[in-house]
Amino acid sequence: MLIGLGTAAAAIALDQVSKGFIFGYLSETQPVVEITPFFNLVSAWNTGVSFSMFNNLGGDGVYILSAFSLLVVGFLLYWLKREQNLLVQISLGLVIGGAIGNVLDRVRIGAVFDFLDVHCLGYHWPAFNLADSFICIGALLIVFDGFWANRREEQDRRQKTGDKPKEAKNKTLRQAGENSLQAADKQP
Q1: DSSP assignment, residue 128?
Q2: pLDDT, tens digit, 9 for 90 and up, residues 36-58
Q3: Computed from CA positions of residues 105, 107, 109, 110, in that sequence, does the dihedral angle turn out positive or negative?
Q4: In what order do the strands lie in the sheet with 39-46?
Q5: How far apart are CA 77 and CA 19, in angstroms?
Q6: Max alpha carbon distance in the chain (Å)?
Q7: What is the mean pLDDT of residues 23-40?
Q8: Which CA distances in Å does 56 have to 68, 121, 124, 187?
Q9: In this predicted structure, what is the pLDDT of residue 161?
Q10: Where are the beta strands (DSSP E) in the chain?
């Protein structure tokens, strides 16, 4: 659990420091700074959740989204307390840290400061920040671990029972069918 909490604390710190630094930088220069042909730093305020979803909830949205985020964080902390898998602990820490980072902005400022702008051929992905990135990366890692965990469990089960994987069974059946066809062809 401590690994997950440490990851969450690091994610919160990185998110808040990056927002403060970039906000200060953009305030002194201009609202859009082109870094590469497909990436800009921008100054955007988001009253919704990640990638500007639910941006139209009005003044109560700050409280609704903050309460919902904290409810999710509570569930994730409960999960983290029981989780044994190191990768999942780190992943949960990323999601928790990202969620808390954005809640801190909502409560302090009334909106989340987004500053990362990725674009291609004139199409812009909604601006986002490190907290949003941590949430997405953590969630993806949890999903990938779930796929790999099922695969590992299936392999463990097969080793214990001596079962062959489906592909091997199908290949064996295919070979048996081909052998019987060849034998039938050889008969007069």
Answers
A1: B
A2: 999 999 999 988 765 555 666 66
A3: positive
A4: 32-36, 39-46, 112-120, 123-124
A5: 25
A6: 92
A7: 91
A8: 16, 27, 19, 77
A9: 78
A10: 32-36, 39-46, 112-120, 123-124
Q: Which tokens is 89 given? A: 């602990």
Mean pLDDT over 155-166 rounds to 70
Q: Which residues are catalytic?
A: 114, 132
DSSP lists the bridge partners of residue 40 as 34, 117
From 92, 96, 72, 131, select the one nearest 64 (Cα to Cα).
72
**pLDDT the model gives residue 130:** 97
Q: What's the average model confidence in pLDDT over 121-141?
A: 95
Which residue type does 44 have?
A
Provide the pLDDT for residue 53.
Answer: 59
Alpha carbons within 13 angstroms on the beta-carbon side of residue 140 total 6
Residue 5 has pLDDT above 80, yes or no: yes
Cβ 106 vs Cβ 62: under 8 Å: yes
89 burial via Cβ count (<10 Å: 0-12, 13-18, 19+) = buried
Instruction: Tell me: pLDDT of 150 over 60.
Output: yes
**Which burial class, exposed, middle or buried, applies to 8 when counting CB atoms under 10 A from its CB (0-12, 13-18, 19+)?**
buried
Query: Contact at 8 Å (CB) between 94 and 11?
Result: yes
